[in-house]
Amino acid sequence: MDMNLSRRSLLKIGGGFGAIGLAAALAGEQSASAAPSPAMVNPLAPRLGHYPAKVKRIIFLFMNGGPSHVDSFDPKPELIRRHGQKLPDSFVGKNTRRRDGKLLQSPFPWAQYGESGIEVSDLFPHIAKRIDKLCVLRSMWSDNPNHEPGLLLMNTGNMQPIRPSMGSWLTYALGSENQNLPGYIVLCPGKPVVGPYLWSNGFLPGVHQGTQINPKNTDPKAMIRDVQNRWQSTAAQREQLDLLQSLNQLHLEQREKDANLESRIASLEMAYRMQGEAQEAFDLGRETAETRKRYGEGSFANSCLLARRLSERGVRVVQLYYGDGQPWDDHGDISNHKKHALASDQPIAALLDDLQARGLWEETLVIWGGEFGRTPMTEGEKGRDHHASGFSMWLAGGGVKQGYVHGATDEFGFSAIEKPMHVYDLHATILHLLGLNHEKLTFRFSGRDIRLTDVHGHVVQDILT
């Protein structure tokens, strides 16, 4: 699917840029039977994929810093039996930054939950009660146990900046159902390591870059500043924008292709349209007191509630970062995970419940995880270091098996040994669920066709319904 074609001639059709707003408004009706096409005037108009999709949108709950799999969703009794011992010599030379620590048992109790009997630690009591709805991936692995490359690989498919993020690939291929809101929204209180590179459009058109919103302040006017024009009426703005866009058109017609100008044109139209819906969508004050209580308090709770509001309004991709920096990066004391889990467990459970109650479950794919896991050995006395050769994530929603565990790590949780699933495989599977063939979703850049999964990845059929 190569959409890297000029829209210069298209912009001359139908009265110029004054028609773009109308085209955007009608895009939902036009796309019902349309295949992905570069010839859509509105780059965010909804489009079909390569084949029928199982879900329409994703919510990515990103636990930046690296949550420990052996303290959350991958129980290891052997760590209890061999607590304080050295890691066996047979593991030396495998992908880890630290091998000199002693094996550390999890400080958190474990129990089986649901009809599936999947074990979860008491870090996540609310999520554990909904374990029969989850597809737990216990055999994830990645290429690098350092934050920067790990974050970039998980989010963009490449350990080096600057490549398009997965959210950008999805809006590039599929557009978004709601033309009055960005198709890719990032809810992040601060800046994780690497920062905006994680939601960058890279070499894709700029309109596909993620829009970052800080959920700490729940006032919608603070979350989206200057969305309302205080000096002009909507009609006057439309006239002014049409004039500006017509000048842009004249400028564009003198050039074969100008991606930056085309992105600016699309952004101006989006900004104009957002006035009618953005503040309402981000206004948590419209939710009942009972709903706010179910989600709990704090910026991550706000993000989960906003994710539900944005998803039900048709936003294609919503990504939630747990916090500023890398909060799950507990080198000193793994017991600090309790604090992070307390702030995220209840709102995630409330989000899952709402997706089911509001009829969004089968249309939405929820992803939980970080850039990697943590070592089964100690760093210092009670902490754990980064670990990429085996860790856990989970999926929920449409198209994936429920109450199911995929793969396994070894007896210590060190390496993925059963049905190993690389980050590229995860990306390929996510694209597949949205109706996209990861090998055909490409963009011509720097002399070759580039894709999210590079030259790797396969769809993991075992986890699909």
Order of helices and strands: HEHEEHEHHEEHHHHHHEHEEEEEEEEHEE
List the uncertain runs.
3-40
Largest sheet: 9 strands, mixed
Overall number of strands: 17
Q: Bin the helical content.
A: 25-40%
Helix/sheet category: alpha/beta
Strand content: 5-15%
Mean pLDDT over the full residue set: 87
Q: Please compute the radius of gyration using only Cα atoms.
A: 23 Å
Number of helices: 13
Which outline best applies? Answer: globular
Span of the ends, CA to CA: 26 Å
Walk me through what this model shows.
This protein is an alpha/beta fold and 465 residues long. The protein has 13 helices and 17 strands. The strands form five sheets. Strands 1, 4, 5, 6, 7, 8, 11, 12 and 15 form a nine-stranded mixed sheet that branches. The chain has a two-stranded antiparallel sheet with strand order 2-3. The chain has a two-stranded antiparallel sheet with strand order 9-10. The two termini are 26 Å apart. 51% of the residues are buried.
In brief:
The chain has 465 residues and is of the alpha/beta class.
What's the helix and strand layout?
Elements: H1 20-30, E1 57-62, H2 77-81, E2 110-113, E3 118-121, H3 125-128, E4 134-141, H4 147-156, H5 166-174, E5 184-187, E6 211-213, H6 220-223, H7 234-253, H8 259-274, H9 278-281, H10 289-295, H11 299-312, E7 317-321, H12 337-357, E8 364-369, E9 373-374, E10 386-387, E11 391-397, E12 404-406, E13 408-409, E14 416-418, E15 421-422, H13 423-433, E16 443-445, E17 448-450
Parallel strand pairs: 1-7, 1-8, 4-12, 4-15, 5-6, 5-7
Antiparallel strand pairs: 2-3, 4-11, 8-11, 9-10, 13-14, 16-17
Helix pairs in contact: 7-8, 11-12
